[in-house]
Amino acid sequence: MRMTRGWQKLACIFFCIALCAGPVMANAPQKGSVTKLPIPRYVSLKASEGNVRRGPSLTHRIDWILKLRNMPLQVVAEHGHWRKVLDFEGAGGWIHYSLLSGGRTVMIVQDYVDLRNQPADESLVTARLERNVLAQLLSCKPNWCRLSSAGYKGWAPKTALWGVTKTEAFD
Question: Which residues form the signal peptide (predicted)?
């Protein structure tokens, strides 16, 4: 079967669209099927205790129990009222959405990190936070985040934190 010139042009257009759209679609941020929010994203544990289950329902076995209020968690999937989360060690499971908050916290993942007056290595140190300390995330620049913990505020390098992406920036 022979294509007419019009059909050849149309086929060429569709081929070009598919070729161009492929990489764009591959780089597009993934959205949650329920909330339409970005996946992955960071949240925090709203409750002082939360069951993490093997699957997205109350009938699934509890694998572990979170007992650290404000602990940062990474949402990697959604199913109904359930969110699949990972903690800073990479352990994961399903937790009911009502136990999560959009309020952002981070965990210090280095032995210690100095909070600084400004987002610069030469800036005055206002406090020192140790490994596994939780801090409220106030804002972020490309390489630094402003934190609040135990009444202290200051800037810390992103490399010392778990609960924020490398490219995230907000006020």
Answer: 1-26
